[in-house]
Inverse folding.
């Protein structure tokens, strides 16, 4: 599924190497950088000619925050493909119509789209399809496709608001405590929501809701499919959704290593292999990414690498790529932020900020850009204002 793109790499390398000086900026930009009390990096490149328009610290490593999602987008499209769907499988035996004899097993695959409303609808549909009015056994939740112990991402702060991750998860469910009593919490919440709808539909059930493993002798009776990964990635990017990003990241390992449980290490390997083949950069030497959403401060990347990823995606998908980015006139993370056309991905952590994407300038020139800021401090030192000033300069002058 991974494509060979050696010609693309040569083109990018030539384009980037045109400016090796890390302070290739205009006087107005130099002034903005001098006034900004923090560590900043900039790269702006024409999408068609590869001409580098602005460059400052473009090859220095930064904490990228949610700009990591650009790598998740790239690897998700390359490994999973736009039509990939998550599936939730239901297993049971039934000798009497309308009755489940024994346990009902539910096996998840990491679907990040299942809100409480969706979970209740899944239960409702299952009841109607099979005319279920009684379950004699337990409801057993098989959460094993993602390593259950890794319900948080690597390097996530325990006292931040983090999404819980699992093969069975509830969309939008976050936790924020310094303790970690969350092992098996996510699948059990999923099961409780599912059972609430069973009760509403009059299904007799007196067993337990528990986490366990599927009995191999059973065959699947029903499957619920999610939206396509194309839709999931678009939501992930526009809303900067951490839960769906981390789920896609973990799913890479399932597709690249069929039959194995997804672990963070396997997910890192899957992402790093496709990034190396496409962009020619080596994990651990040129960059580090340990999650799919950017919450981890272990992540390190350069503005140059972000622009390389955007340029490759534009080459592959053309203007369709814009459907994945937040847009100034639509719902998303940059709505109404600029009075001109810009498609972007934002990034924010307490000590890191970023903005990357595609800008159509005043002269109708399309450029890929990446701005990163780290280690800023002071109430008057707003990285978003710094980003806005740089973007407005690019728009007006190119």
């Amino acid at each position: 599924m991974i494509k060979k793109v050696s010609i693309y790499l040569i083109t990018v390398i030539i384009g980037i190497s045109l400016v090796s000086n890390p302070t290739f900026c205009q006087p107005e930009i130099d002034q903005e950088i001098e006034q900004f009390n923090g560590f900043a990096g900039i790269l702006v490149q024409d999408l068609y000619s590869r001409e580098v328009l602005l460059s400052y610290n473009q090859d220095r490593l930064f904490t990228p925050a949610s700009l990591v999602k650009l790598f998740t987008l790239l690897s998700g499209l390359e490994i999973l493909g736009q039509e990939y769907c998550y599936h939730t499988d239901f297993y049971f035996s039934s000798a009497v119509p309308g009755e489940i004899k024994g346990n009902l097993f539910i096996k998840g695959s990491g679907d990040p789209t299942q809100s409480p409303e969706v979970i209740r609808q899944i239960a409702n549909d299952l009841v109607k399809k099979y005319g279920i009015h009684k379950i004699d056994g337990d409801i057993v939740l098989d959460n094993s496709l993602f390593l259950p112990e890794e319900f948080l991402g690597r390097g996530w702060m325990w006292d931040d608001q983090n999404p819980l991750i699992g093969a069975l998860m509830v969309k939008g469910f976050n936790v924020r405590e310094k303790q970690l009593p969350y092992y098996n919490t996510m699948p059990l919440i999923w099961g409780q929501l599912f059972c609430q709808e069973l009760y509403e539909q009059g299904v007799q059930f007196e067993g337990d809701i528990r986490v366990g493993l599927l009995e191999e002798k059973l065959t699947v009776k029903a499957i619920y499919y999610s939206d396509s990964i194309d839709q999931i990635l678009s939501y992930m990017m526009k809303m900067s959704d951490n839960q769906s990003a981390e789920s896609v990241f973990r799913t890479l390992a399932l597709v690249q290593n069929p039959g194995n449980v997804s672990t963070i290490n396997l997910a890192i390997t899957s992402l790093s292999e496709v990034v190396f083949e496409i962009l020619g950069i080596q994990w651990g030497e040129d960059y580090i990414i340990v999650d799919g959403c950017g919450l981890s401060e272990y992540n390190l990347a350069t503005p140059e690498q972000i622009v390389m990823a955007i340029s490759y995606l534009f080459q592959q998908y053309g203007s369709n790529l814009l459907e994945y980015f937040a847009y100034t006139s639509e719902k998303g993370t940059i709505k109404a932020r600029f009075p001109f056309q810009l498609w972007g991905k934002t990034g924010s952590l307490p000590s890191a900020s970023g903005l990357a994407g595609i800008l159509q300038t005043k002269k109708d020139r399309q450029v890929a850009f990446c701005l990163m800021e780290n280690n800023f401090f002071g109430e008057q030192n707003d990285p978003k204002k710094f980003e806005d000033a740089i973007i407005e300069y690019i728009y007006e002058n190119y």
Notes: The two ends are 37 Å apart (CA to CA). The chain has two domains: 6-82+232-397, 85-227. The CA atoms of residues 87 and 225 lie 5 Å apart.
